[in-house]
Amino acid sequence: MNKHDAKGIPHTTPRQSATFTQDINSDIRRAAATGIYDIRGGGAKRKVPSFDDLLFMGASISRYPLEGYREKCETSVTIGGLHAENPIELDIPITIAGMSFGALSGPAKEALGRGASAAGTSTTTGDGGMTPEERGHSDKLVYQYLPSRYGMNPDDLRRADAIEIVVGQGAKPGGGGMLLGQKISDRVAEMRNLPKGIDQRSACRHPDWTGPDDLEIKILELREITGWKVPIYVKVAGARPYYDTTLAIKAGADAVVLDGMQGGTAATQDVFIEHVGQPTLAIVRPAVQALQDLGMHRKVQLILSGGIRSGADVAKAMALGADAVAIGTAALIALGDNDPKWEAEYNALGTTAGAYDDWHEGRDPAGITTQDPELMARFDPVEGGRRLKNYLKVMTLEAQTIARACGKNHLHNLEPEDLVALTMEAAAMARVPLAGTDWYPGKPGTSY
Amino acid sequence: MQTIDLSDVGLRETNKTLHAQSADTNQTAWEIINPRGAHAIACGLDAPIEVTVKGSTGYYCAGMNQQATVNIHGSAGPGTGENIMSGKIVIEGDASQYLGATGHGGLIVVKGNASSRCGISMKGVNIVVQGNIGHMSAFMGQSGNLVVCGDAGDALGDSCYEARFFVRGAVKSLGADCEKKEMREEHLTLLQGLLDEAGIDADPRDFTRYGSARRLYNFDVDNAGAY
Description:
The structure holds two protein chains of two kinds.
Chain A: H1 22-34, E1 39-42, E2 54-56, E3 77-79, E4 88-90, E5 94-96, H2 106-119, E6 123-124, H3 132-137, E7 141-145, H4 154-159, E8 162-166, E9 178-179, H5 186-192, E10 200-201, H6 211-225, E11 232-237, H7 241-250, E12 255-259, E13 265-269, H8 270-275, H9 280-293, E14 301-305, H10 311-319, E15 324-327, H11 329-335, H12 343-348, H13 373-376, H14 381-405, E16 419-421, H15 424-430
Helix pairs in contact in A: 2-14, 7-9, 9-15, 10-14, 11-14
Chain B: E1 2-5, H1 6-19, E2 29-33, E3 50-54, E4 69-72, E5 88-91, E6 107-110, E7 123-129, E8 143-148, E9 164-167, E10 178-181, H2 185-198, E11 208-212
Parallel strand pairs in B: 1-2, 2-3, 3-4, 4-5, 5-6, 6-7, 7-8, 8-9
Antiparallel strand pairs in B: 9-11, 10-11
């Protein structure tokens, strides 16, 4: 490019717009070419205040640490002891979030069950019913009760170790499900009682109840059908966490699953994923506040999800008051999703490892988010289960390392006082002091 | 006939007793008295027994029913027979909203009228209503049959899949992608069977069949206005 014009006057440096970025421009061109919004999988990709904006302070003169490898740091958690005859006992506070058979292949569901069971935790069904693979390989299986009720039947309900009534999902608060025709194999179609190859649109609201008063009666019905044996969770998106948690408790939930906007989905509109909902960091304290205001903290368990990646995230979630976390996207990556070893095939799909999110198209090179028999055959559920177990173990060890450094002999003993924030936003959301200060925005008794 | 006074023993004991009946029980006839609109009566049954509720019921009576016959000698609250898998439910009075929601099988008969969202998201259940049904009935209906001897309210069969609707009276409006269909011989035979099973004396030739136009099965931007 010439740096001067013919008269020798220098050109200005070409400047990209901060408003019309290359990404935005490509969105506009795609919309103009197709006339339809972009659909993709995964959670919010935009940068939002997150657990990365928090730090643990560790031990000091006023707090003494526990000895690594010598002094115990417990990790177990009991979920659903309030009403259920058989609460869920987990060795680690990291559970596997709901993901449907249909969105995922049968072997992928099996691997999730294998890995979770080996690590002493639970896995969860999704918007497609319960498969024999996941029931058979999951020591603790949570059965999602969704608006679509695909594959829903009382026999599977009674086979579950817990029931999760899904009201919302962090990636799309207020949105229903979507499974496009490419992934509707014979088996998926049969389980969902729909014709093969059509786009399946799951409802956004439950068909037989609306509002908290109805929810209370729905929970009663589910308890009666299952003989009051298993815990009933209520899963809500991170929309209005204080009120949603309050209402779920009022309706009789044993546990509240709270999902922030980084939480993934199998498929929905990109605009929904990126522009509706709240970051996971922002939703945990209001939910804990609701539990505390009702005297239910640690009695009704809070399971936090949405972008949990490491033991540090687990420890931070628990320090802010969660009883456990759930992982979805991270578990898929542990299984092999978006692995660079498939880079050439990602390139052929017009993407790159790490950015692949067209899970709804069913062409996943890693053989996980697909129903294509040839692609599915690439994925070994035994090896996948082993990888997931390893990952869960590492996350647990990491969380224990941090907890010991803070002088805690159980992950549940981590507390907000162990944390500081790196940014004003994170300090306000997590209600912990900005690093180097004793203040956070909105702190009671302050004028800011 | 075994009689349970619900007001005396409570919901939990009532359902526990009914759930305890095995497939080969010789106590097949049960009567529940004083239901007083309680919720979740006789839900989750899974045995070939016949339960008669003497009075009106609240939400989710006979929810997720398998094998059993449940007679409601009164009116039924919201979500009655939701997700029914098999068996039969007969409501002598009227039924509130969401009747038979997501039902996978079995038969529900309403002698009176059924409210809105009757048969919502139905997945194989057969529902026969002697009177009228309310708006948004069979929304997203996947399979099964909804028979209405009276009139249907607004938006019948909105976004339906393969469920069939037979209406003798007027339909106030059809929902998105629901259309009038030809009544062929096999449909007359099917309808006659359903009416017989429901114990209703009506001529199938007086009914009109409705179902999915299948225009919304795969997303097409040119149909976006229909959603």
